[in-house]
Structures are given as structure tokens and as C-alpha cells.
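Appendix B, example 12.
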Amino acid sequence: MKKILVVDDSATSRLLFRMHFPKEYPATIEEANSYDSAIARAGEIRPDIIFLDYNMPGKNGIDVARTLIGSGSSAKFILFSANLQQGVLDDAQALGFTKIIEKPITKEKIVSALKVITP
């Protein structure tokens, strides 16, 4: 069973992620709502997959990934955002993000991301 961490400052977005997550995919889903909580939760649960919102107060999803990669995380990173500017895409690709998803989150977009990770 995969361990998934969803990082988004919006409780509504995290709820929608859970609602759209495919029931047939064997996973436990944990949540974080900020850079600090993401770093702490990732250290506790050692997730296999981390879905990161880009736009968060303070440090963004790319910052979370950069910190976790620097500390040795082997998680697969998936970025989701409503604001996909080229600079954001370039930063995500440079860090090795597995997939980039444009909000709003749908079941189809989650399934597409999971297929890239576990074909």
C-alpha cells in the first residue's frame, strides 16, 4: 500500500483530492497545509508519493520538494496548481517532478498521475 501526502493550504482542495482519489488504488492519504507541516509529516510517514500545491503562503510546493529532496526523500513528486507559468514548470522539471497537473483536480487527472508512477 502506497503512502501519499497531499500538501495544500486549502482544506477544500484537500477534501476534493480525497473525494476524487480512486477507491481502487491501494493507498493511505495523509495531509499537510503548509511548508512546515509538509516537512514534518513527510519526516514522520516517509511518503511514496507527494502531491504538492504550488501556491501556498510563505514557501511554495517547489520549496517543499527542494527541501525534501535535499534531505534524501525518495518520494515521487506531483505538482498541482491553477497557475502554471513557464518558470514554475521549468523549476518542477529541473527538480524531477513526475507529473504536473493543472487545477481543478479531477479523478482522471489523479489516475493519470498514478499511472505514470505505477504503470
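The first strand starts at residue 2 and ends at 7. The chain has one domain: 2-117.
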